[in-house]
Specification:
The chain has 137 residues and is an alpha+beta fold. It contains 5 helices and 5 strands, in the order H-H-H-E-E-E-E-E-H-H. The radius of gyration is 15 Å and the shape is globular.
Length: 137
């Protein structure tokens, strides 16, 4: 996991790829959430005024072809937690959740629904391929 200035550089690279990539990287770097926790996040899991985020659900994948579903718990009992958010994360989530109903997903696939890890893998490859010249690999 990057630290210090490298975090800001990774976030900037994410935004060069797409708004979604920048937002997901901002959230991951700013909170330490796992991909399945990020993709299961809803506005009702976030308290912007108190700058807190509750990890209450996670996306899981099953079978071939992979079936996506949301479970009402994290990877372990320790996964069920409340996290304090940095200002940069609060600002991004405020923008991202503006028109999202409380029980709906914040990060969705282009046509709606759960953001599949295959789609994210392609986005991540585009961001990480740009990182080598900056010493971020």
């Amino acid at each position: 996991m990057p630290t210090g200035e490298k975090i800001a550089e990774w976030i900037a690279l994410g935004y060069e790829v797409s708004q979604l990539a920048g937002d997901v990287i901002t959230l991951a770097m700013g909170t330490g959430l796992r991909y399945g926790e990020i993709t299961a996040l809803r506005p009702c899991d976030i308290d912007l005024k108190r700058r807190r985020l509750t990890v209450a659900r996670a996306v899981k994948e099953d079978g071939e072809p992979r079936r996506l579903y949301i479970v009402p718990y994290g990877k372990s009992d320790a996964a069920l937690r409340t996290i304090r958010m940095a200002d940069s994360v609060v600002l991004m989530l405020k923008r991202r959740t503006k028109d999202v109903p409380d029980q709906e997903l914040i990060f969705t696939a282009p046509k709606g629904g759960i953001l599949h890890s295959n789609g994210w893998s392609r986005i991540w490859l585009r961001a990480s391929s740009r990182s080598a010249p900056f010493g971020l690999d």
